[in-house]
Structures are given as C-alpha cells and as structure tokens.
Fold this sequence. Notes:
This protein has helices at 32-44, 107-116, 134-138, 209-214, 216-221, 224-230, 233-247, 268-277, 306-313, 342-360, and strands spanning 6-10, 22-29, 49-52, 58-59, 64-72, 77-80, 97-102, 141-142, 145-146, 151-158, 163-168, 189-198, 255-259, 265-267, 284-285, 301-303, 320-321, 324-327, 330-336, 369-370. The protein is of the alpha+beta class.
Amino acid sequence: MTLNIRENEPxxxxxxxxxxxxxxxxxxxxSIDELKEAVLFARKKALPLFVLGGGSNxxxxxxxxxxxxxxxxxxxxxxxxxxxxxxxxQFSKSKDRVAVVGAGESWxxxxxxxxxxGLWGLENLSGIPGTVGAxxxxxxxxxxxxxxxxxxxxxxxxxxxxxxxxxxxxxxGFSYRDSIFKQEKGRSLIVLNVAFALQKNGIPRxxxxxxxxxxxxxxxxxxxxxAVEQITIxxxxxxxxxxxxxxxxxxxxxxxAGSFFKNPIISQEKFDELKKKFPGLPGFKAHGTGENETNTxxxxxxxxxxxxxxxxxxxxxxxxxxxxxxFERQPIVVVNTGHATAEEITAFTNSVMRCVxxxxxxxxxxxxxxx
Length: 371
Ligand code: NAP
C-alpha cells in the first residue's frame, strides 16, 4: 500500500473557519492500515501528528505547520441487533440497537439515519457540523443531551503503543465538552470507530427554552400529559434544525467554528456574588437535565450562558473588529467575515475573554481546538 502523502498542503479549505496555513505533510486515511502507515511515516521523520475530522472546531495557525496532518476518513455504519455479543460489551437493558460508526462519517448524516430508523438518543444533537470521530473528543452536546449519554465504547489507535484499544464510556472520562482525548493522557489516542447504543422508545427532551417554545402550540393543543408523548423523533429533529438555522450562522456563507467559547461553570458562591451585581444573570445546574433553575434549589456548580454576559455585561452585542465578529444572533459564535488570519482571530477572542475577566472575574475557556 502506498499512501498519497502531499507536501505543503493548504489547510484553510479543510476548516469551517476557512483559516489556516499549510501542512508540511498531509494525508487522507480511509482505513486503520492506512493510519498505521501514516503514523510510521511521521515517526521516521520525527514529526508530530495532527488529526483533522470535519475541521468544524479548529483554529489552525497561519504559516507552515511542521507536522503530518491526517484527514480522518474512515467510513462505515454497522448496525448490530440485540442478542449479539460484541467485544464483550454488554447491552444496557434500556438500549435496543447498537451502531458502530467510522470516525470519518458525517455526524449529522449519521444522526439523520438514526432518526429515520426511529432510534432515540441523538435527535437533539441534530445539525451539529463535523464528524463522528470528533463527537466523543468534544463530548458534543445540545438541548439537554450529551453524546456521552449514548456512547457505549470508542475504538482508538494508540500512537504511543501502536495498539488498537476499546475504551468504555467510563474510560473516556467525559465531562462538559471535554474528554480524555483533550487531555494530556489521551493525546496519543486517535479515534477510529464509535459505538452508540440507541433506544426504540424514547422520551422527548424538551427542557430547553428554544425547543420548548417550538412545541408550545402542539403541547397546548392536546391534553398536557399526552402531548409530550405524542411528539415524534422526526418532529424533534426538524425543530432542532429549524432552531439552529435561525440562531447559528450558515457555514456556506460564513467562516465559523460554531461556539468559540465554552459556557463557564462557576461555583455557587461566585454565582451568588455576580447575581447581586447583575440580577438578570441566568444560571443552570451544571450537571443535570436543567429542570431546576438555580433560584429554586441551589446547586454546587452553576453554568452561566456566556452569550448573556457578552450582551448584557460586556456590551459586546455585534462586536466586530477587522475581519472578525461576534455573530449577531449568538455572540459566543465567532465569525470570519472576510479573510481573517488565525492571528486576528486569536487577538479578537483574547480581547473578548479579557473583557469577561475584567467585568466578572470569570476565566473563559475556548471550545475551539488550536493547532
Ligand atoms: P442556549 O440554549 O441559549 O443555552 C445557553 C447556555 O445555557 C448553555 O450553556 C446551556 O447549557 C445553558 N442552558 C440553557 N437552557 C438550559 C436548561 N434548561 N438547562 C440547563 N442548561 C441550560 O444555547 P445556544 O447557544 O443557543 O446553543 C444551543 C445548544 O447547542 C446548547 O445546548 C449548546 O450547548 C449547544 N451547542 C453545542 C456545541 C458543541 O457541542 N460543540 C456547539 C454549539 C452549541 P448547555 O451548553 O449545557 O446546553
């Protein structure tokens, strides 16, 4: 097998921010064997490796990246029925079907397939750009659901040992938009396949304001207790796609990596202190389904919407500078309005984070990964 390793490949076209310099070496891999060969190539040249999926959550530096950049395109969706024992992983009694999905598959195409099959679990995560392989890295989440809730295991290639390993859900160390794959101990792991356990019968998750409002009329028009049960998985996907289209920028029009910043999670004491100063500040229980707003029962950690802080405390609604702006309808989304460089994006986002720190004392983390 001979890999097509290209030199000095421009990377901007592989990212949704449409920013980035060139890769010293670049290769597309479609199988585990190709990946192993690519890793060997990098080792011989003593080069670091960077793995790109859909490039939807990346800020790539300007200039030359002295590395081998691997574009992960391992495909395939295998459906496994109950009764089959796979890799010694037990089916949870509440899950009916398992899908083993290649890291290079499109996330949203896979979610569409689960919805078409009437399998519950991922419908609230409709419309998120990127690949299946990136979903556990980021522990993507939306509207009260996180991908960790449906992940059974993640198969990885460990560059350090040269071995294939299956990590259980627990071993992935999932937390809010975080996992082992973003931490030092997981940096040598390349995601190959992800197994999802899904259910034939699910309960619509409508806690979030945007989604609840979308179904308001339907809920009011039928008897309350029956209403939620009658909502179909297809209707939920449609609603989520509509909400996102109204709030997030169209990738065909804007260069963007979606939410650039994480919503901060702060202590209850810090939240109380800020709430005195800024009475309208919303806050949500950090690790729950969102049914309790903080003023009903105080949780220990509180998640605060950064969008509110940027709009109401920092006065940054519609803030722009040069080729970079905060998206008017959702300020935690940073857009490349022209031909921004990575340096411009970094200067701009640093100034946003500085403002939040000065006004609230909160240290904001970036959700976007930088290389
Ligand atoms: P939103 O619904 O306006 O929510 C803003 C913030 O408030 C988020 O931190 C959200 O938590 C929290 N929140 C809102 N309602 C809540 C409730 N009922 N219970 C608990 N927390 C609540 O957010 P948005 O910007 O329009 O985005 C819509 C959804 O897409 C959000 O869930 C957001 O996190 C998600 N999203 C995910 C990614 C990603 O995974 N990379 C990127 C962009 C947007 P959560 O963040 O925990 O949801």
